[in-house]
Amino acid sequence: MTISELYIYPIKSLGGISLTEAIVEEKGFRYDRRFMLVEPDGTFMTQRANHQMALLDVDIQGDILRVWHRHRPDDVLDLALTIPEVEPGVSRDWLNVTIWDDKDVPALTVSDEADQWFSVVLGKPCRLVFMPETTHRPVDPAYARQQDAVSFADGYPYLLIGQASLDTLNQRLTDPVTMQRFRPNIVVSSSLPNDEDAWSRFCIGETSFYGVKPCARCVLTTIDPETGHTGREPLRTLSTYRQWKHKILFGQNVLVKLTGEPVPVRVGQQIEVLARHEPWLAPPVQL
């Protein structure tokens, strides 16, 4: 089994970036979901309620993060890829933000220019914030060790999906969907459909990863990332064979154990499964 695709999403719930190499860090791949859009009161914003966010694309050029609306590609916002807590001559505020049940997560405001640009593009007041290295947002202790932390991602640093899992889903759909619907970080080739549910420990190179639980999917997967339009699929079909305790599962939430400096993983690199647990769902019927 090998890595077939790698993705990061520098601004939570905006477009992703496909990489051939990504740096593994505790909170997630380097630059993954370190920025986030929030309401003026600090409540996080996502495509679930703001479908236009699906049409905001991002790219990294050197140390610059570029953002634009797909229908207005000439109106580009350039941002520094990292925001220092203290910068000479720059006044920057702290804002406590909320992501699901995590309240009062310390974040840095980015700039008035960024706030204005996003407010105009999305048609509602919002602010752009950044998570500095000093912010420690713990992973749910029911599934993690005390020191495990996560970025602005919904709950876990990494999401892994097997390509065969998507292929099996698409065989059941009238209109196939792309992997981008599910916003993974790591896509695996040559695994069995939904086999990743059972991976409790696996290695990529010398780095150990831990599968902690399958990912419960929400209505965000029903938003077409190309158009921003929403429908009933793929959740309706997934519910027929991937439902467990009233949750629809697809992909595996993953933690990492780093023993030294951050290391890269690459497309084409082999994955070795070292330990398994009981899968949360019985393997689907093969079509």
Layout of helices and strands:
Blueprint: E1 2-8, E2 17-19, E3 21-25, E4 28-29, E5 35-38, E6 56-61, E7 64-69, E8 72-80, E9 94-99, E10 102-109, H1 112-122, E11 127-130, E12 158-162, H2 163-172, E13 186-189, E14 199-204, E15 207-216, H3 235-238, E16 243-244, E17 247-257, E18 263-266, E19 271-276
Parallel strand pairs: 12-13
Antiparallel strand pairs: 1-2, 1-13, 3-4, 3-18, 5-11, 6-7, 7-8, 9-10, 10-11, 12-17, 14-15, 14-19, 15-17, 16-17
Overview of this structure, please?
With 287 residues, this protein is mostly beta strands. Helix content is 9%, strand content 38%. Strands 1, 2, 12, 13, 14, 15, 16, 17 and 19 form a nine-stranded mixed beta sheet that branches. A four-stranded antiparallel beta sheet has the order 5-11-10-9. Strand 7 and strand 8 form a beta hairpin. The radius of gyration is 19 Å and the shape is globular. The mean pLDDT is 94.
Short account of what is shown:
It is built from three helices and 19 strands. The protein is mostly beta strands and 287 residues long.
Q: Say how many strands there are.
A: 19
Structural class: mainly beta
**Straight-line distance between termini:** 21 Å
> Order of helices and strands, N to C?
EEEEEEEEEEHEEHEEEHEEEE
Percent helix, as a range, is: under 10%
Radius of gyration: 19 Å
Q: What is the global morphology?
A: globular
Contiguous low-pLDDT stretches (5 residues minimum) are none
Sheet-strand content, in percent, reads: 35-45%
Mean pLDDT: 94
